[in-house]
Amino acid sequence: MPLKIVGVSGILLAMLLAGCAGQQQGRLDLACRQGIETAYDELSFARSQGFSGSVAWSKATSLLGAAKVVEQVENYQQCVDNVEKARFYIRQSQGS
């Protein structure tokens, strides 16, 4: 009988951990999607202000394109990393 209780407890623990992992994945998914949208808005604003940062804009655009690709294959951590790098180059183009 104790073996059966341990088995059920193990299954419940595994389900709990799987549920927590899914929640983290969901948050990264949201951060990725929102980050891409925000970064594109910031890039458009920087371009409209006429800041001279075409090299930084090109780097940011490439990183945002890569972020969209890795979002499609559900590599959300890499997506978030690419968005953060892109936003750095956008800020750099604005002289901040």
Automatic annotation (TrEMBL):
UniProt keyword terms in alphabetical order: Signal
UniProt keyword Signal present: yes
Leader peptide range in chain numbering: 1-23
Domain of life the protein comes from: Bacteria
The protein's name: Lipoprotein
Biological source species: Pontibacterium sinense
